[in-house]
Amino acid sequence: MAKRLTPPFFSGLVLDMGGSTTAVFQLINGKIIPPDSKVSQTHYKRIQSGRLIWIGTQTTPLEYLLKEVRIKGNKFHVIPRGVTFQSISTLLELLSTELSNQLSLFGALGSKKDAIRAIADTIDMDSTFFSTKEWQDIANQFYVAAIDLLSVEIRKAKKGFSKCKQAIVFGLGGETLCMPALMKTGIKKENIHIAKLLISEEMAIMSSAYGACHKATELFLKRRLPPVLSHN
């Protein structure tokens, strides 16, 4: 079914970013490398090789991305207080407001005001100390750091992969995080394909595997299927 979704000659990276991690796969001539029989790697080995990256749109701790931020010529240390990238996604509108509210953990950080308060907590400041624009500047520092770290790990996954000149991005942060990270590694923007433009958006952001199989089944049956299938 995967061959029906992508051209049999496609070679490149496939990135799937969810709320907590980003999975990276190599495709050569439409086949995952290494083949399925050899993919029984531990998460630790996948992390070492850049094939599993601990960066997502929601649960990544901010202290994992930066040790300090700068604003108004001053440095502020980032304190481990359980504040996650969800606040950055909300304040910078990396996800739509509706999607952000739907997917936020326990309904938390559903507003920009709450996001600012959370970011303020992580640098031990009062949320009224800076303007909204300045808080957005601080949030952007975490955003840029996430892209930089992603690009470092993607380079590991690309190592020894001479055919890596294009990519497909799935998931919540495919367009806003994975795409700029891939561009930093040398892949041209026009060679980065956004999954939600290839398959229905609700499938592209839910799960690359489920979405791809769903679309492939439609192509195979030559008819549309409902977005959510019954277990019966």
Spell out the blueprint of helices and strands.
Layout: H1 2-5, E1 12-17, E2 22-28, E3 31-33, H2 43-48, E4 52-53, H3 62-65, E5 68-71, E6 74-77, H4 86-91, H5 97-103, H6 112-122, H7 132-158, E7 167-171, H8 174-184, E8 192-194, H9 195-198, H10 201-206, H11 208-221
Parallel strand pairs: 1-7, 7-8
Antiparallel strand pairs: 1-2, 2-3, 2-4, 5-6
Give your account of this protein's structure.
This protein has 232 residues and is an alpha/beta fold. The protein has two domains: 2-56 and 161-221, Nucleotidyltransferase, domain 5; 62-148, Nucleotidyltransferase, domain 5. It contains eleven helices and eight strands. The radius of gyration is 19 Å and the shape is globular.
Query: What characteristic shape results from the CA principal axes?
Result: globular
- Evaluate the radius of gyration: 19 Å
**What is the strand content?**
5-15%
- Secondary structural class: alpha/beta
* Total DSSP helices: 11
CATH architecture of the largest domain: 2-Layer Sandwich
The low-confidence parts are 1-5, 35-40, 228-232
Name the helicity range. Answer: 40-55%
Largest sheet: 6 strands, mixed
Distance between the termini: 22 Å
Average pLDDT score: 78
CATH class of the largest domain: Alpha Beta
**CATH domain fold name of the largest domain:** Nucleotidyltransferase, domain 5
Number of domains: 2
The secondary-structure element order is: HEEEHEHEEHHHHEHEHHH
Number of strands: 8
